[in-house]
Specification:
The protein is mainly α and 88 residues long. The protein has one domain. The chain is built from four helices and no strands. Helix 2 runs antiparallel to helix 3. The longest helix has 21 residues.
C-alpha cells in the first residue's frame, strides 16, 4: 500500500503541467508589447487570457514560485485594465 501511494505522489509531480511556464512567459510578452504600443489592445486581451489560465492552474497545482513570478504581472495587468476601463 505504501509503495502505491509513494508511486502516485511521484507520478503526480511528473504530470504537473509545466506548460504554465509558457503561459507566464506569454503573459509577460503581451504586457511588454502593450507597453511598446498602447494602441495594441489585443495584447491586453492576450495577457488577460493567460492570467486566467495561470490562475486556473494555480488552483489545481499551487506553486509558490509561479505565484512570485506572476504577482508583478497580475498587479500590472490590474493597473492597465483600470486605465482602460476593463473588468478583470
Amino acid at each position: 500500500m505504501h509503495e502505491d501511494s509513494e508511486h502516485m505522489g511521484r507520478k503526480m509531480l511528473v504530470q504537473r503541467p509545466f506548460i504554465v511556464y509558457f503561459f507566464v512567459a506569454s503573459e509577460w510578452r503581451a504586457l511588454e508589447l502593450w507597453k511598446l504600443d498602447s494602441s495594441l489592445l489585443f495584447a491586453v486581451e492576450v495577457a488577460l487570457t493567460f492570467q486566467r489560465l495561470i490562475d486556473w492552474y494555480q488552483r489545481i497545482w499551487p506553486s509558490a514560485e509561479i505565484q512570485r513570478w506572476t504577482a508583478n504581472a497580475a498587479s500590472e495587468l490590474r493597473s492597465i485594465c483600470e486605465l482602460l476601463g476593463k473588468d478583470i
